[in-house]
């Protein structure tokens, strides 16, 4: 299953580096090559990205992964949700730290 977090991270990486190989994407995200392939296929089927074939050398064929307008909108939405979740985590952590400080003082 393709989670919001992975969709966000993949769209972010591809927006920054459209000629990123699946192997390099997997390495950057800390996932298997198979999972990277699955995620890219899901995003292509959903219409968030498109893959254009290009030759990057005489012996290799690669893909250029481009965000579609739908993919750009999706990335904005995911970024907002990701930010809200991280802010909530940060605020909860701040509370926990303050409680621990109070415990240490007593």
Would you give an account of this structure?
The protein is α+β, with helices and mostly antiparallel strands and 106 residues long. It contains 4 helices and 2 strands; from the N terminus they run H-H-H-E-E-H. It has a two-stranded antiparallel sheet with strand order 1-2. Strand 1 (49-55) and strand 2 (61-67) form a beta hairpin. Helix 2 crosses helix 3 (33-46). The radius of gyration is 19 Å and the shape is elongated. The termini are far apart.
What would a concise description of this structure say?
The chain contains four helices and two strands; from the N terminus they run H-H-H-E-E-H.
* Main sheet record: 2 strands, antiparallel
Low-pLDDT segments, ≥5 res: none
Write the element-wise H/E pattern from the N-terminal end onward.
HHHEEH
Share of helix, binned: 55-70%
Tally of helical segments: 4
The first-to-last residue Cα distance is 47 Å
Q: Which descriptor suits the 3D outline?
A: elongated
Major beta sheet, strand line-up: 1-2
Q: How large a portion of the residues is in β-strands, by DSSP E?
A: 5-15%
Average predicted local confidence, pLDDT = 89
Structural class: alpha+beta
C-alpha Rg (nearest Å): 19 Å
Number of strands: 2
List keywords for this structure.
single chain; 106 residues; alpha+beta; two-stranded antiparallel sheet; 68% helix; elongated
Task: Break the fold down into its secondary structure elements and pairings.
Blueprint: H1 4-16, H2 22-29, H3 33-46, E1 49-55, E2 61-67, H4 69-105
Antiparallel strand pairs: 1-2
């Amino acid at each position: 299953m393709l989670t919001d977090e992975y969709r966000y991270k993949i769209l972010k990486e591809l927006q920054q580096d459209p000629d990123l190989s699946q192997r390099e994407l997997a390495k950057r995200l800390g996932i298997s090559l198979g999972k990277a392939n699955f995620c890219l296929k899901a995003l292509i089927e959903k219409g968030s990205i498109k893959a254009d074939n290009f030759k990057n050398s005489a012996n290799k064929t690669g893909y250029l992964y481009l965000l579609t307008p739908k993919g750009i909108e999706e990335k904005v939405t995911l970024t907002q949700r990701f930010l809200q979740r991280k802010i909530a985590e940060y605020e909860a952590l701040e509370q926990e730290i303050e409680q621990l400080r109070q415990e240490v003082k007593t």
